[in-house]
């Protein structure tokens, strides 16, 4: 582990790291990271759901040794905490995705690399040393998507995470108001040249929303999953599932399920991911692994999600705040603090192993 700077060691929780991260960002980047769609009901709902759910801890369970280890798709993790895909880590830190990847590797975690990274896949793959999944936005240019999938495989990705909740970007109104734009020194090497980006209309609203709309495929359906299946031997995870109906379809199509509302950035007033989890666990009925993201900032959040059937949880903004606060060391600090909180929460719930976390621990 890299040695955290003085500010980072003074951060005793993820809220402290968030404050440090926010302070390091300009308005353009901060509004991009922090925003949710429209009135941000879902953004707040993701957090509120954890505060409402209460624990039913068990006593006298011998917690002299607590083991937080688990696996995702056969990959051993130090704890059930991974990093969700987010675009443009170069907005947070000059080391961009390389810092995040090195932190995931150093902490025995797993990073999900966004299609819209500022760093080429092969560079991130080398830094992550196998501790990465690749997140796919399917482009209208299917050939380019096919090449990207091949590159991800060749770079050591262990899964393909296909994001299904964003045929269009939700309206993050601060980004519209202040015309969010990717700074000139950053590019998105997996999707298009800077030239293509420059051609996208920027006179009105968020450059990002226009750019995204121009690139991604909006016509994809369940039937087209066979096409995706034929492109890769990697496990496929569908990210953005919020209902039992879609979870059932995902499992029928041989996919794993990532419960998410995109951090409240897509459909405002969509159900919180944590509230959606129980019906999804029922519908999947053990046929696939289930992951969850959205609003995770405390060890007890991790514990509740895992107790109710998530194999692992993933950090979106929390990882970005750490990255902005201190690059690789900042992301490591985020992961370490949360893992330590999770371990203590397990002990105080009378759970010595992750398998001991069961739904009986949670009163919804
Ligand atoms: C700044 C930002 C960029 C994101 N970019 C992507 C992306 O490129 N692909 C994707 O599937 N999800 C993306 N997401 C959604 C995250 O993967 C994740 O679902 C969400 O952030 C989880 O909520 P949290 O931020 O409360 O942890 C992004 C989220 C944020 C905050
Ligand atoms: O901002 C996002 O939530 C997101 O998913 C995204 C990714 C790439 C480009 C634009 C938006």
Descriptors:
alpha/beta; binds flavin mononucleotide; binds benzoyl-formic acid; 364 residues; eight-stranded parallel beta sheet; two-stranded antiparallel ribbon; TIM Barrel; 12 strands
What does this structure look like?
The protein has 364 residues and is an alpha/beta fold. It has a domain at 6-96 and 154-172 and 224-363: TIM Barrel, CATH 3.20.20. It is built from 15 helices and twelve strands. The chain has helices spanning 6-10, 14-23, 27-34, 41-52, 96-106, 121-128, 142-154, 173-177, 194-199, 207-215, 225-231, 244-252, 273-284, 299-307, 317-348, and strands at residues 54-55, 70-72, 75-77, 81-83, 111-113, 132-136, 160-163, 236-241, 256-259, 290-293, 312-315, 362-363. The chain has an eight-stranded parallel beta sheet with strand order 4-11-10-9-8-7-6-5. A two-stranded antiparallel ribbon has the order 1-12. Strands 2-3 form a two-stranded antiparallel ribbon. Helix 13 links the parallel strand 9 (256-259) and strand 10. Helix 2 (14-23) packs antiparallel against helix 15 and helix 12 (244-252) packs across helix 13 (273-284). The longest helix is centred in the last third of the chain and has 32 residues, at 317-348. It is globular, with a radius of gyration of 19 Å. The model has no long low-confidence stretch (mean pLDDT 95). The site of flavin mononucleotide has 24 residues, from helix 3 and helix 15. Benzoyl-formic acid binds at residues 87, 116, 166, 169, 208, 212, 262, 265. Residues 6-364 form the FMN hydroxy acid dehydrogenase domain. Belongs to the FMN-dependent alpha-hydroxy acid dehydrogenase family. GO terms for molecular function: FMN binding; oxidoreductase activity.
